[in-house]
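Sequence in, structure out.
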Amino acid sequence: MTFITYHQKQKISPEYISGFTDGEGCFTFSLSHKKNMPFGICVTPSFSISQNKQSVDVLHEIQKYFHCGFLRGDRGTMKYEVRQLHYLQERIRPHFEMYPLRTQKQEDFLVFFEVCDLLSEKKQKTSFGLREILEKIFTMNNSGKNCPIKKHIWLAKCEEISSIFNREEPFPQERR
């Protein structure tokens, strides 16, 4: 059996990154309760690529390529992750528009950046905008952490909050 050794001196190609992401990457959002957020719901975007710890060098190369993000351990693996909205929009999005994904992940990529655009426009600060964001999120990665079972819980919370505040305006402290 022959194994190909990864050489750090070899420059990583954009096509390789897209292919690697098709197999090992994820575009997703984490949802959490935060009292200081409008409606108490925090929506955090995340682009990540996971790999076993023995192959962490390739994640370092991807991090160098994008000039953003961080590496962290995650349940026995290593993960390269980008969460900052401006880096997602200015560095990650252009790459995958130029070098598109070839699997279902391309559809998740498109929805992911629709939601990122809504977050940039601060739509999560109105009940209507938050509901639109949640609906889009739950069309992605159906077997992942935002699976359909959780959809009903988050949308019910959104509905409950919307009926309490019954407003489409941002919270007063959010206007500027």
